[in-house]
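User: Sequence in, structure out. Go.
Assistant: Echoing your sequence, followed by the structure tokens.
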Amino acid sequence: MPPYVELILPTIQAVSDLGQSAKASEITQRVVEALEPADEVLAVAYPNKPEKSIFLDRLAWARSYAKLTGALESPSRGVFLMTDLGKSLLALPQSEAVEQIRRLDREFRRERMRTNASDGPRTVGGVEAEEALPTDVEDAADSQDDWQDVLLRRLHRLDPTAFEEFVLYLLRLRKMSSSLRHASLRGLYEGLR
């Protein structure tokens, strides 16, 4: 039975394969298809919860720790997005990526223990939460720009691939079919240019 830390890289790969954003259930299905665990492995359950698969539970922990270490982000419940860190991990040779993930996991757990021991300020990616807002969002709050102008400026800065990933994410958020693929979104992107 693999520990959750060994399932983080396949989890990140699944999100990448699914268009840089995916729902939790899609990630689970993709990882199970990729790893092809034996039926016996999937059937192993907790003694006190015979209906709960240990493998699938560890896969859920892998998603959580991929998010907590910064390889994925989850702007809404059950939807995960690829981050730059996740992309850089996938670009590494597998052995280096696995070692990097183990290091990130150790650092996160060590930092969490330290944070839980003190009542210091909460941080987001090493930055105090109040300082973590993107600059154009802060500028919009300070000026009279409305949110639509900020959104349009951000959308126009996206390259076509990033725009397609964003649209797929929005479709998943709205529980619409994820069967749309990149080729069918190019026309939508060109229409906004």
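User: And one key feature?
Assistant: The beta strands are 21-23, 45-46, 49-53, 72-76, 79-82, 123-124, 127-128.
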